[in-house]
Design brief:
Number of helices: 13
Strand content: under 5%
Order of helices and strands: HHHHHHHHHHHHH
Radius of gyration: 34 Å
Largest sheet: none
Shape: elongated
């Protein structure tokens, strides 16, 4: 009996050892954390070499394991740029907004706001479609220009602002043409007036003035047609749009206004509209 007990104990001990050995083999060994300096250096190296996916993965490791350091902010910013440069604008914007939330006092905030503006700008659609991103771009551009006026970012956005205004004016013109074609005169005039009041420096100002001439002449408001033609001739007398307007009103005692006043186009339009 004693021998039997010893045998059972030996079997159990053997089973225990085998079982423990099996469990030890299945244990997940802790992942070794790469030192920050090496991790960031390798991530940046991949970034410079254009290995964006590898760079993103390593930058994410920097954020995950070293979120308490300044390098986590740098990693997030570079990751945002990679998404932007890869035309992944939605992901870029998500990361940039996260940056603003986590690092509101960071010295690179001006660049972050600038990159947000550029990501929105790159998503601008053609004039005939929805212009939500155009309007958001306009707001973001002005925010950067106002808050960081003496930076190269503000200077760059000022140059691009005309393109945004052209897009917004183009949408107004697209809708105005639509209404004019369907003889919805008041709706068309409202859109054209928006162009004259808000987008005077855009490429659509001449066409807007001409279409004002067309519509007012069509509805019998000859005096207003002549006034808009006069403004068009005063500012753009070599324009094809003016030539078209001239043929409409020339038989109505039309006289092109001479440049004998210092009034700006804005002032002349305000005097006419108000």
């Amino acid at each position: 009996m004693k021998n039997f007990s010893v045998t059972i104990i030996l079997i159990l001990a053997s089973f225990f050892l085998i079982n423990c050995s099996s469990k030890n083999e299945n244990l997940i060994k802790p992942k070794k954390t790469i030192p920050l300096e090496l991790l960031y250096k390798e991530a940046y190296k991949n970034f410079e070499q254009g290995k964006y996916q590898d760079a993103v993965e390593l930058f994410q490791e920097v954020e995950k394991n070293y979120g308490y350091t300044e390098w986590a902010a740098k990693a997030l910013l570079l990751k945002s740029y990679i998404y932007y440069d890869s035309s992944r604008y939605v992901e870029a914007l998500e990361n940039l907004k996260n940056f603003k939330k986590l690092y509101s006092g960071n010295s690179e905030l001006a660049y972050v706001e600038y990159l947000i503006a550029i990501c929105l700008f790159e998503q601008i659609n053609i004039s005939a479609r929805d212009q939500t991103n155009t309007r958001l771009s306009f707001q973001q551009f002005n925010k950067v220009i106002k808050n960081y006026p003496n930076t190269p970012y503000a200077e760059d956005l000022k140059l691009k602002l005309d393109l945004i205004n052209d897009q917004l004016a183009g949408k107004e013109m697209y809708v105005a043409r639509y209404y004019q074609k369907r003889e919805k005169w008041l709706a068309a005039l409202k859109r054209l007036t928006n162009i004259l009041e808000k987008y005077q420096t855009t490429i659509y100002i001449e066409e807007a003035l001409h279409r004002m001439v067309e519509i007012h002449y069509k509805i019998g408001n000859i005096e207003a047609a002549k006034k808009y033609a006069s403004i068009l001739g005063y500012n753009f007398n070599d324009s094809d749009w003016f030539k078209k307007s001239y043929t409409i009103v020339v038989d109505k005692d039309f006289v092109v206004q001479q440049k004998n006043t210092k009034k700006t186009l804005r002032e002349k339009l305000k005097a006419l509209i108000n």
